[in-house]
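Researcher: For the annotation table, I need C-alpha cells for Aldo/keto reductase. Please keep the output clean. Sequence:
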Amino acid sequence: MSTLSAVPIRRTLGDTDIEVSSIAWGMWRFHGDDLRAARALVDAAFDAGITLFDTADIYGVDQGGFGAAELLLGRLFAADRELRSRMVLATKGGIVLGVPYDSSPDYLGAAIDISLKRLQVEQIDLWQVHRPDILTHPQEVARAMEDAQKAGKVRAFGVSNHTVDQIEALQAALPFALVSSQPELSPFRIDPIENGELDQAMRRNLAVLAWSPLGGGRISQAGTPREQAVIDELDRIAAQFAVSRAAVAYSWIMAHPARPIPIVGSQQPHRIAEAADAFKVVWTRTDWYKVFVAAKGAPLP
C-alpha cells in the first residue's frame, strides 16, 4: 500500500533562502511578566525542533494589552542577545481595536516600526497583513510592503486570513513574491483544502501557516457527531503510532502536498514538546482520506 512522502523537518519559506521548521509555535496567548516561564516556553519549542515563531501586534491583548506578546518576546531578546539569531521571527499587523482593520500605507508603516520597537530588533523575517482591509487598495498595501523591504525592516511578506482572490490582487501589485498565507486549517476546518487556497499555495509556492490546527479546542471535546467522528479517526492512528491525538492532527495537516506548517498554540512546555511526535506518523492514502471524509461529514464521490 502506498504511503505519503515523509515531511522534512526543515523547509524554505516560499522562494526565499529563509529556512524554517515544518512546525511553528504561535504566541497568541504569550503574555505576562515572568521571564523565566516565558523563556521555558521558547526553549520547549527549540527542543521540539521548532525555529519558526509566529506572533502579532494584537496577540496578548486580552491579557496584557495591545502589543503584549511582542513586548514579552522583546524582553527575552534583551535578556539574551543570541536568542534572536536562533529563530525565524514572524509577526503581523493591521487589526485595530474598534476599527477593525487598517492596511493603509501610513498605518502599516507605523505598525511595522512599532513592532520592531516592541520586539527590540532591527529586522523582522516575515511580516504578514493580519486581516484584509476591504477599504485599502492592494496597490497601497503593496507600497507599504515595498517601503519596509527597501528600508531593510522586513525580509519577506505574506498574508493571513486572505481569500485566493485577495492574494492574487495583492500579488499583482507587488514587484516581489509573497511567501506565505496563514489560514485556519485543521481536521475540523478543511475549507482551505476545498476552496482553492492550498492549490494557490502550491501554484505560487506560498508557505501555508495553519492556525488553530487543533480546531480551537474541539480536538479535546467534540461538539458535534462529525467532530467526534474526526476524533475517532485521529485516535485510531494515535494508537497505531503511540503518539498523542494532537500529534496526529499536526501530521495530517503536514501530509498535504502543499506542506502546511501547523502553528502549535499551547502555552504548556510538555504540549509543545509532543508536537515533534508528528514526524513519527506515516500516512497511507486510505487513512488520510478517512480523516478527510470524517471532516466533511459525507462520503467522497
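Researcher: And a one-line annotation?
Model: The radius of gyration is 19 Å.
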